[in-house]
Amino acid sequence: xxxxxxxxxxxxxxxxxxxxxxxxxxxxxxxxxxxxxxxxxxxxxxxxxxxxxxxxxxxxxxxxxxxxxxxxxxxxxxxxxxxxxxxxxxxxxxxxxxxxxxxxxxxxxxxxxxxxxxxxxxxxxxxxxxxxxxxxxxxxxxxxxxxxxxxxxxxxxxxxxxxxxxxxxxxxxxxxxxxxxxxxxxxxxxxxxxxxxx
Amino acid sequence: xxxxxxxxxxxxxxxxxxxxxxxxxxxxxxxxxxxxxxxxxxxxxxxxxxxxxxxxxxxxxxxxxxxxxxxxxxxxxxxxxxxxxxxxxxxxxxxxxxxxxxxxxxxxxxxxxxxxxx
Amino acid sequence: xxxxxxxxxxxxxxxxxxxxxxxxxxxxxxxxxxxxxxxxxxxxxxxxxxxxxxxxxxxxxxxxxxxxxxxxxxxxxxxxxxxxxxxxxxxxxxxxxxxxxxxxxxxxxxxxxxxxxxxxxxxxxxxxxxxxxxxxxxxxxxxxxxxxxxxxxxxxxxxxxxxxxxxxxxxxxxxxxxxxxxxxxxxxxxxxxxxxxxxxxxxxxxxxxxxxxxxxxxxxxxxxxxxxxxxxxxxxxxxxxxxxxxxxxxxxxxxxxxxxxxxxxxxxxxxxxxxxxxxxxxxxxxxxxxxxxxxxxxxxxxxxxxxxxxxxxxxxxxxxxxxxxxxxxxxxxxxxxxxxxxxxxxxxxxxxxxxxxxxxxxxxxxxxxxxxxxxxxxxxxxxxxxxxxxxxxxxxxxxxxxxxxxxxxxxxxxxxxxxxxxxxxxxxxxxxxxxxxxxxxxxxxxxxxxxxxxxxxxxxxxxxxxxxxxxxxxxxxxxxxxxxxxxxxxxxxxxxxxxxxxxxxxxxxxxxxxxxxxxxxxxxxxxxxxxxxxxxxxxxxxxxxxxxxxxxxxxxxxxxxxxxxxxxxxxxxxxxxxxxxxxxxxxxxxxxxxxxxxxx
Lengths: 198, 118, 600
Ligand SMILES: [Cu+2]
Hints:
A: 0% strand; B: 118 residues
């Protein structure tokens, strides 16, 4: 594990792993604490709402399940994009990347629709503790999806340049993938803990 | 020149076929979750079942989609550090709030400004 | 990739404003952190002087209650986030690559970005004095006092936005440093050969990486409560102000270790050098540091004993808090073991290092006292706590930083700070610090509450308050002596050799001050004390080859631009959302420019 291990070519590092990959993983560890605190808040305020609507009044599980599947499929297309980037299939990569972005946008569309629906049923930030903690938690998840869309969009535009993403393109794509999958696993937790558990 | 040799995770043999299978597996577990939540199970059973299934999904995505299983151990250590700490703080906070002994105080034990409260 | 942008003879030494604004050199960034941090340290000291002047006599009338609340709040915020943290970051920036034998940090531009974002956040927070009043809810900003109902001014918004920006900066810096420590070490520099200062800073970085997201969430909730109609902390609407306290202290207890661990690391470097023997119990001191970091996440509720946690939580948090005394004690014994039997060379750096041990121990012991809930409920919100934190943060953190400053000054500037003035500085500070803060123990035990802006005569508090105020003026005098020393020294010719103290760590293997590329030849590490090992085994320094091709990252103005964008983003939230939009545009544009900028 130590420095004696011969690293890869000119990018010599002490642990033999890429700096940027390591940075992303440590950043994701930090993000765990971010979403952990938001989920804690949601659970602590569960049952503390003084007025309706409560989760049972507004949640539309079939609708949310649909958007959950959308995000799941986007993880699949993302992993394909990474695969294609590593194996030098530029066309497949761009196509998968584009699908991922579109699926991300669809997910965001679902979220906007859901927020408006809840709003029309009388739930907003100031209604009760459920409204406040629900919108802030899922809203920040949505912001992460939005940042991910911008991130992947930049990658897509970058890959359309004459020499694509350059020699480290596979690595860049893999790091972007880490971020995207993380946003997906946060949703896995949110879907179960917030929507399904009564 | 500095391309795949060092950017590719060392032992990942997964290809599109496997990724499709994994995705279908994840979808099936999600459907099972939905079935469980409509099946009228007792609360404790339901919560346990749901948490186990979502943990499985979580683990599969992290290990296979994010290639953590095939990468250097240091990535796993870093990520687990955050994940375990976040879980521990979540459990700690919930334990503190759900067993708040001040909630059980009788009216005569409450400080004066709380008497007229809810 | 073997491009040679910086062949040595062509490196030109021209320093214009532009080179500083676009620099990605860790030494320049460290210097900027140091100067800014010291300026804010002076500002916070000035705030403290006004506070002490107000309290010198009963019914003081220097400032009114409102201003007083702003002063003690900003004193704490400025010292913690704009003074001590950046000063720690200054040393770490400057010496991390030098001490592990690297040419720079892992992400030089990200490093510059951390600084500019810090500076923006610091100026934003401080500007609150001009724009409608500084935050006045204490550095902890307890809800519901911090809600809009009880703090209608903009002060608390400045607090929340300022801390969010500063947190972003710290997070980026910590990620960068952590990767650097793990991945950029010189050949032979295993983890268990890292200098203790690097180890302690690594713990600090992880404390920040893992605790900043928690305060981020709390601050976001505060912003939403104040501006977007949520009621997270409003009891009448089902909210719970105690949640703020929990989230705040989950961050803020680790934060106090963020403040003290760098100084523990500095002292662990200084003591062996001037005792002329290796650090006693290296492994123990490293593991104790890690243990402090881990335990630091399990003690937060000891700040909340008086909120009525219940018996079981009280027992748990008492036990975990007292457990921290064990690794802390291990460190103290290790430092004393280092001194024991050494041929001690008492210069100013050593004076500060040794007094660190004494003063920190006093603060540590009073800390264990209020780990006990019955004792704590007597001491909570009294001057006893004020005494405790100042022994830890002044007697600990600040004294340690001065030790490091005297120790590393020749490396950074090529000049030695004057020893005679240094010792005057030391004695004034040491005596002044004890005169200021020790009487606060008495004041606290005789019931004087914290954060009151006046007190009546004949409560028995006059004498010690007066003594404390006299002490604070001595502290101010000691800082003036230091400043005289600094400016006088900077006018002298540089005389320092590579390793004037005969120290064992790698930063002393290069010239003083170091060249832009740090090392002509990356050193090879054969021992925990590499330079002593080489000296004792007659290993000569490797001569640099006649022609060197050292790749240095080119300067970039994108970090500055993103920093500006982030600042606008924050200013916009406080004033007009159009500015926020502009900030977002600038940030996105600059990230693009950043990504496309050639770095090879
Ligand atoms: Cu604490």
